[in-house]
Specification:
Blueprint (H helix, E strand, L loop, with lengths): L1 E6 L5 H9 L3 E6 L4 E3 L4 E3 L2 H8 L4 E2 L8 H9 L4 E5 L7 H4 L6 E5 L7 E2 L2 H7 L4 E8 L8 E9 L6 H19 L17 E2 L15 H10 L7 E4 L2 E10 L13 E2 L4 E3 L4 E8 L6 E2 H7 L12
Parallel strand pairs: 1-2, 1-6, 2-5, 6-7, 8-11
Antiparallel strand pairs: 3-4, 7-9, 9-10, 12-13, 13-16, 14-15, 15-16, 16-17
Length: 308
């Protein structure tokens, strides 16, 4: 088939490569424009951009697709059979969805209709879900509301972070879209009306620890926000980044004031249970172990981390 691929981050690269390796003709790749990244604000191409260039495929980087007749015309002139969309980052208006002969198929990293939206992987871990998966859907103009072509499931492991789960889902999505396009497309099924949840884009402030939550909720969110934006808290007004924490399994008989730091280590009381901070980082310093942090910082007996 003549395919258009639309994607941007590293998550999308395996799907693009799978389509190329399957012998499909990928006639163009649409991706987010290069943007400044890192401390030096170096202009950097998206991972999908680099992968497409390596494969010798034309790359297009429009800032937006809505009300851009010239972009629509260029897309229509490709005479594509199908567009495959995977974490592209732009909403597709109806005229773009209608441009390929068979429309657009989206690779979405959740079991729809649970976790429609921009950050389904982080949302599933943060909520304590036991499983997630990949949904292949026929796109419509709504936000992840299209009819379902296929759902593949996998367990969320107790040690999964957003990074590790994303890698597994990325390869699952690549495998399933490759398989789907080897055969005539199945008849799509409308999404269930029950169990709908929606999640927005992840923001830095989402990762501030709320010590009034339970130890399990805090640990879930810590894993969900690795590697970005990274969990953090405040002590006496100073922002501290948390590099690692664990739930304390051994019962502790102590005051349960949320955020209270319990000597002799960085065990912290939560709304229900305790967590042990294993690694921590002060502004402008390197990440250190809890022991090294305590050796370099005197804490009063009633010291407590600030909650939201």
């Amino acid at each position: 088939m003549r395919l258009i691929f639309m994607g941007s981050p590293e998550f999308s690269v395996p799907a693009l490569n799978a389509l190329i390796e399957s012998g499909h003709e990928v006639v163009a790749v649409y991706t987010q424009p290069p943007r400044p990244t890192g401390r030096g604000n170096k202009i950097t191409k998206q991972p999908v951009h680099l992968a497409a260039e390596k494969a010798g495929i034309e790359v297009r980087c429009p800032e937006r697709l809505r009300k851009r007749p010239e972009i629509l015309k260029e897309l229509q002139e490709l005479k594509a059979d199908l567009a495959v969309v995977c974490a592209y980052g732009l909403l597709l208006p109806q005229e773009v969805l209608d441009a390929p002969r068979l429309g657009c198929i989206n690779i979405h990293a959740s079991i729809l209709p649970r976790w429609r939206g921009a950050s389904p992987i982080q949302a599933a871990i943060a909520a304590g879900d036991k499983e997630t998966g990949v949904t292949l859907m026929q796109m419509d103009a709504g936000l992840d509301t299209g009819d379902i072509l296929e759902i593949s499931r996998l367990p969320i492991l107790p040690e999964d972070t957003a990074e590790t789960l994303s890698a597994r889902l990325s390869h699952l999505g690549a495998e399933r879209i490759k398989h789907l396009l080897q055969n005539p497309l199945p008849s799509p099924t409308p999404q269930p009306t029950e169990g709908v949840t929606t999640v927005g884009r992840l923001k830095r402030e989402d990762a501030q620890i709320d010590w009034h939550q339970s130890a399990q909720e805090i640990e879930n969110k810590f894993r969900a926000y690795q590697p970005w934006p990274g969990s953090f808290t405040y002590l006496n007004g100073e922002k501290l980044k948390i590099g690692d924490l664990k739930i304390v399994k051994t019962p502790i008989q102590h005051s349960t004031k949320p955020g209270l730091i319990i000597a002799p280590d960085l065990t912290v009381a939560t709304g229900n249970g305790f967590v042990s901070i294993e690694k921590i980082q002060k502004p402008g310093r390197k990440m250190v172990s809890a022991k090294d942090f305590l050796n370099g910082n005197h804490l009063e007996s009633d010291a407590a981390f600030d909650s939201k």
